[in-house]
Amino acid sequence: MAERKRPGHLARAVTKQAERKERGDLYAPLCPSRGVLEHVTSRWGVLVLVVLLQGTRRFSELRREVAGVSEKMLAQTLQALEQDGFVLREVYPVIPPRVDYSLTPLGREVAGHVEVLTDWIEENLSRVLEARKRHVPKRGTEE
Amino acid sequence: MAERKRPGHLARAVTKQAERKERGDLYAPLCPSRGVLEHVTSRWGVLVLVVLLQGTRRFSELRREVAGVSEKMLAQTLQALEQDGFVLREVYPVIPPRVDYSLTPLGREVAGHVEVLTDWIEENLSRVLEARKRHVPKRGTEE
DNA sequence: CAGAATCCGATTTGATACTG
DNA sequence: CAGTATCAAATCGGATTCTG
Questions:
Q1: B1-14 confidence digits (pLDDT tens)
Q2: In this structure, what is the dihedral angle of CA atoms A62, A63, A69, A71, given to the nearest 10 degrees?
Q3: What is the pLDDT of residues B80-125, one digit of tens each?
Q4: C-beta within 7 A of nucleic chain C, residues 42-81 of B
Q5: Tell me, which fold does domain A33-134 have in CATH?
Q6: Is A72 within 7 A of strand C by CB distance?
Q7: Which among B21, B37, B84 has the least Cβ separation from residue A46?
Q8: Per the database record, which ranges form the HTH hxlR-type domain (chains A, B) (predicted)?
Q9: Which of A125, A129, A143 would best serve as a mutation to test chain B binding (most B beta carbons within 10 A)?
Q10: Phi and psi torsions of B91, nearest 5°
Q11: What pTM was computed for the model?
């Protein structure tokens, strides 16, 4: 073992020029996969995805469930996720306006992985908090 | 079904006042779990965790492997992850200085989940890119 | 080598209106 | 209701300089 360097596509010999559909490489600064990752792991993107995993939601409902998000950020987040094909936006021409947001099949896949992560964090928060206490801010005045 | 609202601890009746070690609630704006989530899902945090999953790394190695990160951001990211107990920092008092970074058991757990996510994104990049093409920027001039 | 500290412009974010 | 537009505040983030 001395070849496997990159985590993602390690030991995969993708070098066969543009072979398949094209896989991303997060370790290439210019790869668009970085952008996708950022949409998915963005502050509000994560929470929106996981909430939508529970079912369809309206804008105002998301606003309430994802506590703390501003209208602007929520709209912006939803647009990014919609553009990437994770979220479906359905507008009903009624008065008052009604817009439903839901996950696409693609979205359900990522959201599933994201949820595992968020669940882990919620579940293990105490362990992290313990670690923080244990952690010395600087290096102690003495050892 | 009409009770399950919150994704994370849904249908769990945590309401028994401060029962166990305390679980986080990402849907509570003030819960520290939000901070942990942000460290883990931060721009560079994600990449650092996945790289460290491959094994111990020195500062300069991380700098190279996580292409695009600046010294400042890398240091900052590592500090956050170290504080949360995900990363272990070992200093060797030699000249020139040597510092090794590795994952703690706790870190290996999160990093594992994070890797599943990043792998999915790399793997499915083409699907997302397709969705983006398909996506109409505004609402077309006509339908 | 491994950072800490500083300067400072580029983004991001968030209230607060305003619109269809 | 579901956003968009706007403006100021807060952060981010990188290049540079300086130690141990």
A1: 444 556 755 445 55
A2: 120
A3: 999 999 999 999 999 899 999 999 999 999 999 999 999 999 999 9
A4: 58-61, 71-72, 75, 78-79
A5: Arc Repressor Mutant, subunit A (1.10.10)
A6: yes
A7: B37
A8: 31-129
A9: A125
A10: -100, 130
A11: 0.88
